[in-house]
Amino acid sequence: MSLLQAENPVAGVRLATIDDTDLLVPFINHAFAPDNYFKRTERTNPSQVTDYLRNGFFLLLEDTVGLLGLIYTELREDNRGYIGMIAIDPDRQGAGIGTRLLRIGEEFCCEKGSSVIEIAVVNLRPDLVAWYQRKGYRVVGEAPYVRPEILVMPCHFILMEKTLAPTPTADPEPQLTPHPN
Ligand SMILES: CC(C)(COP(=O)(O)OP(=O)(O)OC[C@H]1O[C@@H](n2cnc3c(N)ncnc32)[C@H](O)[C@@H]1OP(=O)(O)O)[C@@H](O)C(=O)NCCC(=O)NCCS
């Protein structure tokens, strides 16, 4: 039984497909709207989501009513995973769903061989940097914003990383002690 099923028998996780683009784009843009003031454009669009689906995976957390939240994961070189674009239904934020999705994304990357997770947070979101720090991430550097042409104010990325705990290996075969005769 997966981590998620154990915690909530109603909600389930599935991988998004290209057919989910029309679900994902408005959901992500709605979730990010209050924090998107530094850009001329919305957070995402169908062409960007299509690119993301080519390069990585969106994990969707759903219940019987619909989508609760999602996380994007990408498997990179050198056993590194990337996580981004966590978006939770604004009516359901602050109830632990983001924390749960982050763990689900980390578990997904770990199962696929990642030992380190990378994230990039815009420097205008100190609240988010602090949130990730509480989840075990540390600041490792800075990088320029990827598309400066869409910015209405200067900003850059804060790069963060977390080393995942190694997956416990099965116990070795118990050593049989010879029975004293
Ligand atoms: C940032 C975001 C992903 C966080 O998701 P969330 O579901 O609101 O986050 P959580 O509820 O797990 O955590 C927020 C706080 O809620 C509180 N909380 C956590 N579990 C809770 C629970 N079971 N009950 C009540 N409150 C809880 C805690 O204070 C928690 O902070 P902490 O875990 O660091 O102590 C979400 O707000 C969001 O979608 N924002 C818009 C998009 C965005 O900015 N995404 C991030 C870019 S990667």
TrEMBL record:
CDD domains: NAT_SF. Residues 11-165 form the N-acetyltransferase domain. Transmembrane segments: none annotated. It comes from the Bacteria. One of its GO terms (molecular function) is acyltransferase activity, transferring groups other than amino-acyl groups. Pfam families: Acetyltransf_10. InterPro entries: Acyl_CoA_acyltransferase, GNAT_dom. This is Ribosomal protein S18 acetylase RimI-like enzyme. The lineage of its organism: Bacteria, Pseudomonadati, Acidobacteriota, Terriglobia, Terriglobales.
